[in-house]
Design brief:
The complex is a heterodimer. Chain A contains six helices and six strands, in the order αβββααααβββα. The chains are: A alpha+beta, B mainly beta. Chain A: This is DUF4331 domain-containing protein.
């Protein structure tokens, strides 16, 4: 896939105590626990689309709290600028270490800092019902942004998009630069099951 | 804000890991509460004509339970971006609420209101599942219970990166901070026919172009407390 196209991809980067049937006759169809209660207004506490966005890009505790109650329809307008400032901060840290000024470089998908942070600010996940091949966060340059599987290495993908520069290999630990494009961690053996519900029992 | 100051704040807050997937260290208002979402996945499962949603919440020990007053709501946008700048709005919701020893599931259905507040339309009840069990009913598979955390990330190394900016960065070896952790999980595998028709991929919509990316639902999860 052409880089030209690739860049666009990431851009995006009663039942109360009564079980009421779905029929109109209102038959009680199931046993009900007397303590069952589905009434009331439920008020938003937390939200998540893509992994870790809120833990990374808002800068202050107040911003993190505010992001959790920003509906997706308003996320780009309210948060793109904040996220861009955070990217500046991340690069500034290594500028201090290196003694030179380091800045974000348009990434492997052709996303400049504004486009990347715009995509990240809209914190929703895409899943394609008719995808060709497995749905994935990023499997290859021809299959990406079609879902998020349990085994997808979303951290490395995210680090590459943030630090990898236009060839994906910037800050790869070579040439005196730090290793910032992988955490060198993969899926643990035996955590994912081939059958529903795809996660293995807890082990305390 | 000066960059150095910004950096310091990053280090202090830093739970903030870049892309700490499992959102285990979340905003202070929800961290260490029963509303804290750990992770969210959406993918094609064994049924190729269905979409699987996985939602996890941290479970520190075997006694950790889903909160009977915290609604878990999966939001599905099947009409695409709206507004200026473009954003998405939920067209359908799937709701899950524990009561007693069961998880009750509702939807998908079009909610009476969108946004920060939700109610449960009991007429949309689909089924209940014993906590710790799976069930398939009406073509939909359900699970609710404790499961190992599948997320993988060297969070400690990341904290070091953001706190001290070591010359080596992450270094050459990693340790999965989340390997020993467990979660309270709900998993739903639901036929795509129940989710409506997917809109053009959000990238195409936002850029008003054609990229070749397949049509895709925009999905996210929320926890809401009464």
């Amino acid at each position: 896939m052409k880089i030209f196209n690739i860049k666009y991809m990431v851009f995006a980067l009663a039942v109360s105590a009564l079980v009421i049937s779905c029929n109109d006759d209102d038959d009680i169809t199931g046993p009900i626990n007397a303590s069952t209660d589905f009434t009331g207004t439920f008020v938003q506490q937390d939200q998540m689309g893509r992994p870790g966005i809120n833990t990374v890009f808002p800068t202050t505790n107040a911003q993190e709290n505010a992001f959790n109650v920003t509906i997706p329809a308003n996320q780009i307008s309210q948060w793109q600028g904040v996220f861009s400032d955070k990217v500046d901060g991340l690069y500034a840290a290594y500028s201090n270490t290196a003694g030179t000024t380091l800045e974000y470089e348009t990434n492997i998908l052709g996303l400049n800092q504004t486009l990347l942070t715009t995509a990240l600010a809209l914190d929703v996940l895409q899943v394609a019902p008719n995808a060709t091949g497995p749905t994935t966060y990023f499997e290859s340059t021809s299959n990406f942004l079609t879902g998020r599987r349990l085994q997808d290495d979303v951290i490395d993908v995210s680090l590459i998009l943030l630090f990898g520069g236009n060839d994906g290999a910037r800050f790869n630990g070579e040439g005196g630069l730090p290793e910032l494009v992988t955490d060198n961690v993969g899926l643990e053996t035996g955590v994912v099951s081939p059958t529903f519900p795809y996660l293995v029992p807890a082990s305390f | 804000m000066k960059k150095i100051a910004l950096w310091s704040s990053i280090a202090v807050c830093a739970a903030a890991a870049v892309f700490i997937a499992a959102d285990h260290l979340d905003a202070p208002a929800v961290a260490n509460t029963t509303s804290d979402i750990a992770d969210f996945y959406a993918f094609q499962g064994n049924n190729v004509d269905a979409t699987t949603f996985v939602v996890t919440l941290p479970a520190g020990d075997a006694s950790a339970q889903f909160d009977e007053n915290v609604l878990i709501e999966i939001n599905i946008d099947n009409t695409g971006a709206e507004g200026t700048p473009p954003g998405v709005v939920e067209d359908l919701v799937i709701q899950a609420l524990r009561q007693g020893d069961k998880m009750y599931f509702f939807g998908p259905y079009r909610p009476s209101e969108t946004g920060l507040n939700s109610t449960i339309d009991v007429n949309q009840f689909k089924t209940s599942v014993d906590i710790g069990s799976t069930k398939t009913e009406g073509g939909v598979s359900y699970f609710a219970g404790q499961r190992q955390d599948a997320f993988f990330f060297d969070f400690e190394a990341f904290n070091n990166v953001v706190a001290t900016a070591p010359a080596e960065g992450f270094g050459t070896t990693g340790n999965n901070t989340f390997a020993p952790l467990n979660t309270n999980a709900i998993v739903i595998e639901i036929p795509n026919s129940m989710l409506g028709t997917a809109p053009p991929h959000i990238v195409d919509q936002l850029l008003n172009t054609t990229t070749g990316l397949p049509a895709a639902y925009n999905v996210w999860v929320e926890t809401k407390k009464r």
